[in-house]
């Protein structure tokens, strides 16, 4: 799940080069970034820029952000991340931040919030009630240290198309028919990829995540992709694993049957199986 933007990018004929301040040595060592034309396959994730480059994890650039391209990308451990005015930038960082669902940290304060709110009139934890509102609220959410949003209109349009096809979904928190928190994600078979979250109440996005984790536990989804390492995700149990391990997990789970997300809600017994953290 993304929290900040990366360096600016400028285009060349066939390749893009990172537009950042570097020493002559770094400039000479900078790898080329392939431009992917419509209909052309994305490179393998292992060819992404490495740790010693200006933008570790950067893989390719292009203009195609169709639903078909997104499915191709996610099935190979690749995701889009770019700002207004940039081409579509494709990423696959190594290591990869993931949340192993059985290791989700159900902190005591979150457990108490869930118990309190689930007993409140008009409170609802659900999925796919209003995907469009969730992604737009995520785009509008102000994040500390971040200027603007990477969830640009082109991104919103693309993920709404993916949602209509049944591949993108939202975990939502409602109070008195008002959407107060949520997150959206991509689900391909048994592989699940988290994207972004927002909240207007204390523990709101954590409750949306806990609801998602409970469904994953109930249906045997073992890993939620978190993409990038952040202290917030780490506090909830997310950890870094080698990209090769992550790609193997995708291939292992992607062909499993999908989930009817509109029929899902919080599975308390699944959460109760987890160890409660301080």
Question: Can you walk through the features of this model?
Answer:
The chain is an alpha+beta fold and 278 residues long. The chain is 30% helix and 26% strand. It is built from nine helices and 15 strands. The strands form three sheets. The chain has a seven-stranded mixed sheet with strand order 9-10-11-12-13-7-14, with helices on both faces. A six-stranded mixed sheet has the order 1-2-3-4-6-5, with helices on one face. It has a two-stranded parallel sheet with strand order 8-15. A hairpin with a 2-residue loop joins strand 11 and strand 12. It starts with 8 loop residues before the first strand and ends with a strand. The N terminus is likely disordered.
User: What distance separates the N and C termini?
Assistant: 24 Å
How many helices? The count is: 9
Provide the β-strand percentage band. 25-35%
The strands making up the biggest β-sheet line up spatially as: 9-10-11-12-13-7-14
Structural class: alpha+beta
Calculate the mean pLDDT score and round it. 89
Round the Cα radius of gyration to an integer and report it.
19 Å
The counted number of beta strands is 15
Globular, elongated, flat, extended or rod-shaped: what is the shape? globular
**Largest sheet, strands/sense/barrel:** 7 strands, mixed
Helix share, percent: 25-40%
Order of helices and strands: EEHEEHEEEEHEHHEEEHEHEHHE
Instruction: Return residue spans where pLDDT drops below 50 for at least 5 consecutive residues.
Output: 2-26
């Amino acid at each position: 799940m993304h929290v900040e933007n990366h360096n600016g990018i400028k285009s060349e004929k066939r390749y893009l080069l990172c537009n950042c301040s570097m020493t002559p040595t770094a400039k000479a060592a900078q790898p080329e970034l392939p431009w992917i034309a419509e209909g052309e396959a994305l490179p393998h994730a292992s060819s992404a820029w490495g740790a010693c480059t200006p933008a570790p994890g950067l893989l390719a650039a292009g203009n195609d952000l169709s639903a078909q391209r997104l499915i191709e990308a996610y099935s190979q451990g690749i995701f889009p991340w770019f700002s207004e005015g940039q081409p579509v930038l494709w990423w696959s960082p190594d290591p990869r931040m993931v949340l192993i669902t059985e290791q989700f940290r159900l902190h005591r304060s979150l457990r108490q919030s869930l118990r309190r709110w689930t007993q409140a009139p008009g409170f609802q934890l659900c999925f796919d009630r209003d995907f469009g509102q969730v992604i737009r609220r995520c785009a509008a959410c102000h994040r500390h240290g971040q200027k603007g949003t990477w969830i640009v209109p082109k991104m919103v349009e693309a993920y709404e198309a993916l949602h209509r096809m049944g591949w993108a979904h939202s975990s939502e928190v409602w109070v008195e028919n008002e959407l107060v928190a949520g997150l959206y994600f991509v689900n391909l078979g048994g592989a699940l990829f988290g994207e972004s979250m927002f909240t207007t109440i204390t523990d709101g996005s954590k409750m949306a995540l806990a609801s998602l984790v409970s469904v994953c536990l109930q249906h045997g989804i073992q890993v939620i992709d978190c993409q990038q390492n952040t202290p917030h995700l780490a506090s909830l149990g997310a950890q870094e694993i080698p990209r090769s391990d992550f790609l193997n997990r995708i291939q292992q789970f992607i062909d499993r049957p999908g989930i009817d997300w509109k029929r899902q809600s919080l599975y308390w017994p699944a959460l109760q199986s987890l160890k409660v953290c301080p």
